[in-house]
Amino acid sequence: MSSVLTQEPAAQPRWSIGRLARPDTAAVSAVVLVASAVFFTNLTGLAYADDEGTYTAQALSLNDGDLAPYTYWYDHPPVGWIQLAMLIWIPRLFGLGDDIDIATMRYVIALYFVANAVLIYLIARRITVTKTFALLGVAAFIFSPLSLSLGRQIFLDTVALPWLLLAFYLVLSPRMALWNHAAAGGSFAIAVLSKVTAAVMGPALLVALIDRRAWQGRMFSVMGFLTVGALVLAFYPLMALLRGELVSGDGHVSLQDGLLYQFTAREGSGYVWEVGSARSELLVSWAVGDGFLIVGGAIAAVLCLASRRTRWVSVAVGSFFMPVIVGEGYLPSMYIVAGIPFLCIALASAADLMRRAALRVARNWLPNQALVTPIVLVGVTLLLLVQTPVLGWVAKDRELLSSDQNSDFRDTLDWMRSHVPRDEVVLTPYSMWHDLDSEGWDDNWTMIVLEKADLDPAFKVHHPSGWKEIEWIIEGPTVQSNLEVLGLTTASTALQNSAIVRSFGPWNIRRVQADAIAAP
Amino acid sequence: MLITAAHIAVLIITACLVLLACSTLFLSTYAWWSPDHRSRTGYPDILPENEHSFSLIMPCRTEREEVMRATLGRLLEQTHSRVEVIISVGDDDDDTVAVAQALAKEHPDRVRVSIDSNAVKNKPRQLNTALKLCRNDIVGIFDAESIAAPDLLAHIDSVFQHRHADVVQGAVQLVNFSDSWYSLRNCLEYFIWFRSRLHAHAKSGFIPLGGNTVFVKRELLVSVGGWDGDCLAEDCDLGVRLSVLRRRIVVAYSPDLVTREETPDSVASLIRQRTRWSLGFMQVYAKGDWRRMPTGVQRLNAWWTLTQQHFMALAGVLIPISITLALFAKFPLPITMATFLPLIPTIALFALEICMLHEFGKDHNFRIRPRDYLRLLLGAPAYQVLLAISAIRALGKFYTGDFRWDKTAHNGAHLKMANVELAEAR
């Protein structure tokens, strides 16, 4: 007989000074300090990528009430860069980023990184991993060269991560409270609206929610999670509908076209087992970046199957790598970003499972001994295991935390600022676009993003003579491959009919000579 | 993007609607908030000793004999040993008086009749007249058309002992959910009210009591002067006055111990009932006793409790209106999208109501079929309109000072349901 009777709650202070002194609070503070210290070091040293420029420019275009400087074509849901736009005042307040917007935006990403580190710790603790091993997992996250390279760049994956991790944290609520589970649905939806690939974690979230000792309100929790998640997600198609761009049609972009492009039309990366396919090369590059985390994390994820508490971790890592292993569609290099925290949680959980197993064995064999010995044993074994990656990490991390790969970028930017008249038409990679445009051009059809000359029909309206109206091209390190991959004919022609005026490392500033050679 | 006064107005209305919908969601799902919420609240174990004695008032007005006989029968069959029943009738209602007296004659030692001779006829005045005849420790109210569980009073006695309560509110459940499109919603509404909302109110320390299966210590009831003879929601009013006095009000729920009732027999009668309740709440609000709650937060909570229901009834109509307005006025996209926000808690509640209906069926051994779930969802908008009509009607009556008592007619459907259920149990 289930029966209910309301009674008055015992008076219990929710917050107290004692709470602040608890070991978990101290550990979280330590995580915040270390993650900030490592992450803020040489944050702007890593080379700026085109995608970073894209998201920065799109975030800053929100100031003008637009979702993107050029036509927004539903390539990604906008929630990711809406968040970036809402947070950029923080680094600006402290004058961070050397007056380069893309650099300033990296400091916003740093906030997300710190949040991710804290959430990894909290999730590990929620599945009863001891503090030591939870901290070990966080350390793997902070010091992995993959985190320090891809994780510090302005990618939507990093923006989606705290929401995804928060969803896991809420779903694992030990009180099994309905509002936690409903909020988890909302948080997951925000993650997906920040970066659609976060959706691969949906099954793992459901496993984390359901695969526990049954409780009375489980049906309510599942319903709350699914409903709130679906309702928040629905705001994306709602936006497209209100803009009249839900389904494909002549003369306008649409959500349908955007999704079709991302999932089918975009050139695939081949199968992972095809030697030389983009996919296999990417996997190799991740393994080279941090083999310990990729391989060790994968093994740890298998070990996590051993306990019901950690089974969802296996599902998370498994479903994360599923598109890598069995798919052949387009796979971006930053895809790994969303997997790193789960690999770290897998490592922490597996280490903790081994500790428990060792303790059980020790108890049976040495019933009256102190428990210190087995712990030390496991510790030593782990140290041996960790030693190899630590050596590899130190060299890579030292490089990532000290090298300045953007001096040529800055020199190019400075030269353009001081030598090119503001009414002359320039083609530039997205990485530099916003910082140049805001230097006095302030017109996205005078200062033009490289691929927009070919891909945005509005180019023809503003420049009816095509490539001949382009006067400058900035040739960054990625320009040649972009021209080939995207098949950009206008930009290619302009490039062929141009001469280098000034070079800074891999950056060439080219002047287009429209009359010199006839167009092909 | 130019923000105009119209935009700000729409945003403010939207914010209010979000707040309302979230509050409704919170109160409606309170009991399911966590397993902890469920388990720390529960009927305590039944105690061997019956410490208290009960005087049960059964207010009747133009009731049919078999309805009265069934209700009385269940009260006299209680496992609790010290129970007397006062059938309360009005002196202008000759048929019911005759039935009441005939029934009392069958049980001369345990049943008496109280005949109210007030010029104005209503439930609270009948109750006050009957209260004068009560002799036992605890006064309980059972409406004429309700079926009490046999061991209810034994449990209520235990709650009084265990929890040192001054007032215990038992649960009422409408059961004829398959009779009409609105009865399903109506039944679920009661389920949510007694299973969840009242517990949230009790926890907050401000609780509008129900009018049926409610038990008050007689001395306390007499000391506060009984019920307010001019109030249409005399039950709610009593709860407010006892909350202000900080008396210990305990809400008790168990599916086995609910008092069974039936839904109003037509849409018109449902609207009349709702109008009366809304008007009653408005009266209680206007009386202002709630302003005597000790702290500002408690006053705010009291204000919200007394007004929120009417707001919510209107919200069901206001949400589509504000969205339509934003669409046709061609507001900027973010503002138009914001007008959709109240739909998140509103639709989430509809979805959770599916789970509640499932639990309702499980609790009471009813088979809930797929078409019932469908009816639940499809009936929601229309039911919301009914509530809104009632709220607006009540508001109209409140401002024109029309406080006549519209009694709800019943046709005895709950008796059939109770029998069916008994047959199944066997």
Structure explained in plain terms:
- The complex is a heterodimer of chains A (about 525) and B (about 425).
- Helix content of chain A is about 60%, strand content about 5%.
- Chain A is mainly alpha-helical and about 525 residues long.
- Chain A has a 5-stranded mixed β-sheet.
- Chain A has 2 domains: about 20-400, no CATH class; about 405-510, no CATH class.
- Mean pLDDT of chain A is about 85; it is low at about 1-15.
- In chain A, a hairpin with a 2-residue loop joins strand 5 (about 500-505) and strand 6.
- Chain B has a domain at about 5-40 and about 165-425.
- Chain B is about 55% helix and about 10% strand.
- Chain B has 15 helices and 9 strands.
- In chain B, helix 1 (about 5-30) runs parallel beside helix 13 (about 345-365) and helix 10 crosses helix 14 (about 370-400).
- Chain B is globular.
- Classes of the chains: A mainly alpha (about 525), B alpha/beta (about 425).
- Chains A and B meet through strand 1, helix 10, helix 12 and helix 13 of A and helix 2, helix 7, strand 8, helix 12 and helix 13 of B.
- Strand 1 (about 5) of chain A pairs antiparallel with strand 8 of chain B.
